[in-house]
Amino acid sequence: MSFYREDYAEIIPKPPYMWPNAQILASVYTTKPENIQKILPPPLLAGKEGMVIVFVARYPESNFGVSYNESAMFVQAIFPRGEGDINGVYCPCMYVDDDVAMIGGREIYGLPKKIAKIELAREGNTVRGTVERGGIKIVDMEATLTGRAEGAIEYGPTFSLRAFPSPDMEGLSLVEIISIDITTEPREIHTGTGTLKFERSEADPLYEIEQEMSMGMIFNIGTPKMSKGTVLLRVTGEDTEKYLPYLYARSY
How far is CA 78 from CA 54, 87, 216, 220, in A? Predict the structure, then answer.
């Protein structure tokens, strides 16, 4: 092993990235669109339905040699453009329990990954997922599976904010809004009811995206697939300053 490796492409494969036999517990709910709008970097706009997805996942394998657990929140968002708006979701926070998964997601895609203790367990028709960080259980979700469904959830591309602080810590050197296509080939889809709780944390304020109406829970066993990212917007210079307020949660 050496710090200098000419086989970089073999060590870090190019997308699509895949997670066979993944287990994913997701809670879907609605919130007030203004709760979403305040955390969206421009020019993203909140969707009128105010849909939110929170999931906890276990990835026993991947095509880049890492197994780990993950959790994230996705909020409904729109990227406006003249030739037709793009409807998708924005990721304000994401958690993993492996540093390789964190580094790749942050540096390549701009996903706001942080390290946390993540657990997902199933016992019969009960599935529970938890995320703990700094001694605080920031996500605690439990579902009772009551039925089966066909077909995967389609919510459009995932938007992320990829930003590089200036090395002199005077603002940002570069900001990008990125679009990522994430799909899942389902093997089993279970529907259910349950609870989703956010413990208050100033470092991880998921609780601010308040739950108005639950749209149920889904437990999915299948293979997620992530494509290469596409830069929708690139910002440099003084215009990057307006993005600073959206970076706090990924740095603390």
Answer: 18, 5, 23, 26
Rounded to a whole number of angstroms, the CA Rg of the chain reads: 18
64 CB burial (10 A radius; 0-12, 13-18, 19+): middle
pLDDT tens-place string over residues 123-142: 999 999 999 999 999 999 99
Please state whether the predicted TM-score (pTM) of the whole model is above 0.90. yes
| Per annotation, catalytic residue among 48, 113, 117, 197 | 113
Q: Are residues 41 and 50 in contact, defined by beta-carbon separation less than 8 angstroms?
A: no
Query: DSSP 3-state assignment of 34?
Result: helix
Place of tokens 């699509």: 16
Please, what are the domains in the chain?
Answer: 17-155+186-224 (2.40.400.10)
**Paired tokens of 80:** 């406006």
Confirm whether 113 is a catalytic residue.
Answer: yes
